[in-house]
Design brief:
The chain is mainly alpha-helical and 275 residues long. 77% of the residues lie in helices and 0% in strands. The protein contains twelve helices and no strands. It is elongated, with a radius of gyration of 29 Å.
Amino acid sequence: MKSIIIPLFCVCLCLCGCATEFNRVYKTTDYAYKYEYAKECFARGQYNRAVVLLQDLVTIQKGSDNAEECLYMLGMALYGDKDYENAASTFRKYCSSYPKGLYAEQASFHIGQSLYQSTPEPRLDQTATVGAIAAYQQFLDYYPGSKQRSLAQSRLFELQDKLVFKELLSARLYYNLGGYFSNCIGGGSNYEACIVTSQNALKTYPFSNLREEFAVLIMKSKFELAQQSVEEKKMDRYRDAEDECYGFLNEYPESNSAALANQYIKKCKKIIGKN
């Protein structure tokens, strides 16, 4: 029992000593010492402590030789502490205050990095994702020769894929809702919404690897839309669905959905032929 109690007692004493020292440094008016202690905390990975001290020092150091480094280090400490929103804000402040500063390239890169870390899953609001893409693009524009160019590009493409996938989820939802009209405020149908969403995604992201999936949804939605149409619109929509199927086969002749496209074409021809 003694062998357990004694080490625990030593640990408690050590922790109390560290806390006492930190509180003493936090309250001191010796700002040079306080700054050096903050740098030590940062170097040790004690980001939370570094943040507390640097937030206090940023205003005090303003105009001094340490002001630029202090602001950049605060951003990095916030990033290390996983406070990504405030980290991005601090890096933006640095880039605004020191556009030609010693850490300007790193700060610009870490705006994107901070926003990237806070991007949600595709089903949720993607405002942060759009912001991260813009930040990475700005970094690439300002620093085309940066060593971090390839990472910024890969992250940018990854985030774009997330936006595309969100559009795909929306298009799939509209298609799956199908003939359910309660959600169609102001007229229209879910199939039309699926078509418009998919077409817009293809225009916005022409090189996406999800192009075929959008094309399948457009083709299927146009056929289903024709089936549920009123008589006066039915023939035009069957012709449109048939044209869409031919276009799909031309672009994706080896697709797993090629057989479905051919089935649709036969059905469209049969119905159009009767009329």
